[in-house]
């Protein structure tokens, strides 16, 4: 469902600020894979995700989604294949619009979108049923402005919007990092529920080692623009934080030094 073929990305080439962010990464995700990605600051996690999303083009290599070469496609043309949830709960929803209006925009994705004809009763019932699955009481607040919701409620709504059209690939860019631990756990529970229900191929960046181990069927660890660990199946089920740290040290030749990931 996703294939990265030896992709490279360097920022500010030829200057004093030159930074090689991706160094020949190759990665394949099968249909239904739920892959968590972890690594220290500057490891290349977000750069890889943004390369997949088309936020910027790679310098070398190819990116294929469901067999289609999207390497040269701009971000807005790749969006038809992707669902995405960002770290900031304020991103991904329209704060001044109602909950049901946000869902209507998401459901009309890829079509000529307008709210002039209003939201039909059938659509309203569909949105209400979807919101009930979140167990956050939002189904009784469909006419509330999204800006009135808490950060966790907005992230849950953004997840619903990002997956409403069942994308080829779901990108989660540290989508619980800005939330308190209790709210983050709830959003991750909803994430598992949606991903498993719809069999979505998912790439989730997290700063939290425990979350990376607990969720998904495969874990990737990055360091200095490379993938240094790729753990899946039974090996992933047996993982502990200490075991992951030991494997990182063996693969990279250095200690893992991201305190946020260790203490999360």
Describe the structure.
The protein is α/β, with parallel strands linked by helices and 264 residues long. It has a single domain (2-263), classed as Rossmann fold (3-Layer(aba) Sandwich), CATH 3.40.50.300. Helix content is 35%, strand content 23%. The strands form two sheets. The protein has a six-stranded mixed beta sheet with strand order 6-7-8-3-9-10, with helices on both faces. A hairpin with a 2-residue loop joins strand 4 and strand 5. Helix 3 runs parallel beside helix 5 (151-163) and helix 5 packs parallel to helix 6 (181-198). The protein is globular, with a radius of gyration of 19 Å. It starts with a strand and ends with a helix. The model has no long low-confidence stretch (mean pLDDT 89).
Q: Considering the protein shown, what is the CATH homologous superfamily?
A: P-loop containing nucleotide triphosphate hydrolases
Estimated share of beta-strand residues: 15-25%
Radius of gyration: 19 Å
> What would CATH call the architecture?
3-Layer(aba) Sandwich
Number of strands: 10
Gap between N and C termini, in Å? 30 Å
Lateral strand order in the biggest sheet: 6-7-8-3-9-10
Structural class: alpha/beta
**Shape type:** globular
**Structural domains: how many:** 1
Major β-sheet profile? 6 strands, mixed
**Order of helical and strand elements:** EEEHEEHEHHHEHEHEEHHH
- The number of helical segments is 10
CATH topology: Rossmann fold
Unreliable spans:
none
Helix content estimate? 25-40%
Average pLDDT over all residues? 89
**CATH class descriptor:** Alpha Beta
